[in-house]
Amino acid sequence: MAESDWDTVTVLRKKGPTAAQAKSKQAVAAAQRRGEELETTKKWAAGQNKQHLVTKNTAKLDRETEELHHQRVSLEVGKVIQKGRQERGMTQKDLATKINEKPQIIADYECGKAIPNNQVLGKIERAIGMKLRGREIGLPLEAVPKKK
Predict the structure, then answer these.
(1) Longest pairwise C-alpha distance within the chain
(2) pLDDT tens-digit map of 119-130
């Protein structure tokens, strides 16, 4: 058997507060009562998803006045989309499925209600084989050779 050392004393204590408990209002108030120095900082917009914030400018654009409004797709582009889609025997749903978008987006583009998005327009151009942007709207889409 090992020798016991009667001179050493082991003290068992409770664990300190966890990080969440140390930040609670009760813990801060208790530390203030004890006269301890505290450093508290408020994180600006902590825990919020910044991509969905609405700013004043977006709210103004949503109200849409005559002088301040979103640019819409022209009816000419909508007619070209409709013509190209029908030439290939596709419905709006077929075209939407082919470009991985919702059918409502195709309907909005065809009737001129959509706010233009170059990625969506590019996908539609490739799917129907017609140009939708620039001066040559409605002409066949030619494969542009890549520069080496």
Answers:
(1) 97
(2) 999 999 999 998
